[in-house]
Amino acid sequence: MVLQKIHKAYMWCLQKHFKIIVLIISILAINNSIYSQTIIKQFKKDSIRFYFKDTLTVSNKKIPPEYNNSIKIALIYYPELCSTKIKFKIKSQVSPLSARPSLFSIFQKAKNRKYIICISTKTMQRFDAILLKNLAFNSQVGVIGHELSHIVFYNKQYGIYFIKLFFMHLNKNAIDKFEYNTDIRCIEHGLGYQLLSWSKEVRLKLNLTQWKGINENDTNGRERYMNPESIIKMMQELKMYQ
What we know:
By secondary structure, the chain is an alpha/beta fold. It has helices at residues 2-34, 47-51, 68-76, 137-154, 159-168, 172-188, 192-206, 228-237; strands at residues 61-62, 85-91, 97-101, 114-120. It is 48% helix and 9% strand. The chain has a four-stranded mixed β-sheet, covered by helices on one side. α4 crosses α6 (172-188). The longest helix has 33 residues, at 2-34.
């Protein structure tokens, strides 16, 4: 009788452990499927024809025709945003690109939120060269990936976070970390070479070794956006880029 109870308890534990193992494997498989897009070093305007289906469609997205290919290629690397409502809006603003939830959806559940990615047509004269329309195609994909990485992060936050984010912009160190971590997510999603292209192009056109955004461009060693050396180092450490 005692041996039967021991055997029964053992089998129960074994079954429980098996379920836990299966659950862990499933989670790892899901995560792997999210970040398992093909790593491609150089995208060109017609890349979508060679690497992806001609019939590629995206749902819940409003995409300007002139950026159709660069946006669609970037979206392929963010399958978790497949059903997320995103409007790519062209307007005149100081920042070349920006991503945010629409005002009336901030306090909605993430699945119901609408996001806006603004693509600027005009900025300060000095920064005109790094507007999306003036970037190489590969760099366009990289910086769009950066903005999509913001939305991936926003989808995991509650409405109150966006109030906190507003005040974070008053803290240089907080925004440095915020943007740096966004670059990390972009690399983890498989667009490291594209982000590297953007990082190099921005610094070359602005004649800077460090670039921390429109309002800050000194060279005191801080990284708001990852510099090329940091991007390369991270790619070398990730198996997906080997």
